[in-house]
Amino acid sequence: MKKTGAEILWECVVREGVEVVFGYPGGANMPIYDAMLSYPIHHVLVRHEQGAAHMADGYARASGKVGMALATSGPGATNLITGIATAMMDSVPVVFVTGQVAAHLIGGDAFQEVDVTGITLPITKHNYLVTRADEIAEVVREAFYIARSGRPGPVLIDICKNAQVEQCEFEYPREVKLVGYQPVDHAPKESLEHAVKLIEKAQRPVILCGHGVLMSKAEEALMNFAIKTQTPVASTLLGLGAFPASHELSLGMMGMHGEVHTNLAIQNSDLILAFGMRFDDRVTGTLKTYAPHAKKIHIEIDPSEVHKNVAVDVPLVGNLKTVITDLIPMVDEYDHDEWKKQISDWKAEGDSRSIMNWNPDGKLHVPHLVSDIWKATGGNAVVTTDVGQHQMWTAQYYALDRPNRWLTSGGAGTMGFGLPSAIGAWFANKEEEVWAVAGDGGFQMTAAELTTAVQENANVKVAIMNNSFLGMVRQWQEFFFEKRYSAVNMLSPNFVKLAEAHNVPARRVTKLEEVEEAIAWARSFKGPAVIEFVVEQEEAVYPMVPAGAALDQMLQRPLKGSGD
Amino acid sequence: MNYTFIALVENKPGVLNRVASLFRRRNFNIESLAVGRTEKPEISRMTVVVDCPNGDYDAHKIEANLYKLVNVIDVQDVTHQPSVTRDLALIKVMVGPEKRAEVNSLAEIFRARIVDVAADSVIVEITGTEDKIEGMIELLRPLGIVEMVRTGQVSMTRGVNDGVRRMPGVNGNRFEDLSEMAEMAP
Ligand SMILES: Cc1ncc(C[n+]2csc(CCOP(=O)(O)OP(=O)(O)O)c2C)c(N)n1
Predict the structure, then answer these.
(1) Does A2-169 carry CATH code 3.40.50.970?
(2) What is the pLDDT of residue B167?
(3) What are the sequence ranges of the domains in chain A?
(4) Domain A354-534 class, CATH top level
(5) What is the ipTM for the molecules in this complex?
(6) What is d(CA A11, CA A7) in angstroms, rounded to the nearest whole number?
(7) What are the b/e assignments for A38-65, b being 16+ CB within 10 Å?
(8) What pLDDT is recorded for position B186?
(9) Could you say which of B169, B171, B184 has the minimum Cβ distance to residue A306?
């Protein structure tokens, strides 16, 4: 049957299981928007294409499926860039479809022509420029396959306008044929055996649980492995939720703002089992002294990550879930009681400095607020964040027991991610309650999406932690620039009025007594809500490993008497 | 040190750009790059010579990242493998009839050929390894080189390729000796 290129696009997209797309129309993708009306697709009209990218990203992270976003050529496509890079850095499967000028105009600087495949080359897993309708079916099929398989990531398809309107015979490609792209599943047997030998010898093992655990849906395999070998599990920022925070083997978050006992465990371990993580500089501290006594086993789907930052003893390149599942019957049971005892001693020491022990001092502190939200939601909300201090505090204090409900921009650290990703996450499961924890700075970067939330009646609650500063930058200036504050004082609009102008109910909370009630209020109805918490201005995130320091050289929260 | 990689890539628009962009993105300097068809029309073959300041550590990184490109079918680091390597140069030398004999005898020694003769210049064609070509250039230089072009290095390993697609870090290859690797990381 003959169909237009735009129809073929939707035929294929629907077959990929896509139900919701986020986007913004324009001249170069109008045929795509026109054809969309005939397909069972819910389109979310955003206020800025960056929002569409983050929503598709949030949808993908929360659903475990491929997200999809649309934009027109030129400025529409360039507005996506930050969102594409964000998805790339965190290996999130999103297919982006952009309109492009007609093929015969390419290279002529036509109206709204931008070299989108050129610009996005380094920030996509793969991209395509489609100039003919008869290429579309195969390209879309490949794009979704590439996005979700192997190490997932964003794929962009730039479709020329003529290819959208031209007609051709449509036949859905039965299979994907990519000679140069064949993700591996199993790791070689000899390497597994080599790994088992190291596991046998280990007295002080630690598992480093990364985003890969979530991406390969290996949570159960990880649990079985950890229990059988009684190996404590530390998590990267993006790996949070893959292993239940409340489990006795859970060590919580590692790295720059990781917990003291977690980083000490890594530095003192004699075997590191890195599961789907990439030894980012934010989790290792200086490499010179990183885990100096540890043998290292690295299970990783992407061979280019092996030995990239940290040379390892046994690389197991393969699908994480498959490899762990293969390993489990090969390893013995252990108890590692002494090691676990040592770690819990360290933990007790670190906990004594915790801000959670503070008596109320009349001020609002973000860690307490996060904990209050955690209590109110039973730890069951889907939580997204912006980037900065509030992000780290949310990572530290919104203890997650379930996977795929923690959405944060880790690799890219993209401010403005919180609200749009929350809207996207809500589409993954509309029964869920989604909380976006934002900074006063980051919130203003994508605040226009409040109206998108209203338009879709998305059950998204925004907690703005307003410290009147670009807090994390301020903290660095305090610690490392002699408190010379430069361009960090943040004048904000009246957030309550801003929200109300978007028809979002909002409250401003300045006193401790109001906190609980405000959270209950926001939860008492479906649909978006905003709470602005006016918080302590010059709080610092602890513990902190200064950039370039060793992982166990943590700055710790100064001891504070209660109530002062 | 210079490393040599052979990449088999799909013969599609933009693939060269993807490969070149990768080197830029990962901050490597390409010393030489030669691309051409293979016995299969849908496949092109690239020989890339790259400066790897951190030796094998960099080489692994390049190999693994090339391998990640969807249009790259196979990558081989042939630096340490027995292989035949050739480069071709056309060198135009400013000589009148009186000095042609000198160029001619030099060409003979290097098994080069004179492929064009004009009133006051000749073009010498030479194939061989880097070293050989450099050697010839040095000797022609005093006579007056006015123009030169080189194809870039092409390489082929000796013997029959086993046809096994190697993946960095999977078949283990040179990283079996891991302690060695540990020392390589900068
Ligand atoms: C788009 C973008 N621009 C700049 C930065 C650098 N940056 C990191 S954290 C931060 C401060 C964020 O301030 P705010 O949103 O108020 O959150 P807080 O740290 O106070 O919780 C900045 C500017 C960034 N991560 N992303």
Answers:
(1) yes
(2) 55
(3) 2-169, 189-349, 354-534
(4) alpha beta
(5) 0.88
(6) 6
(7) eeebebbebbbbbbbbbbbbbbbbbbeb
(8) 38
(9) B169
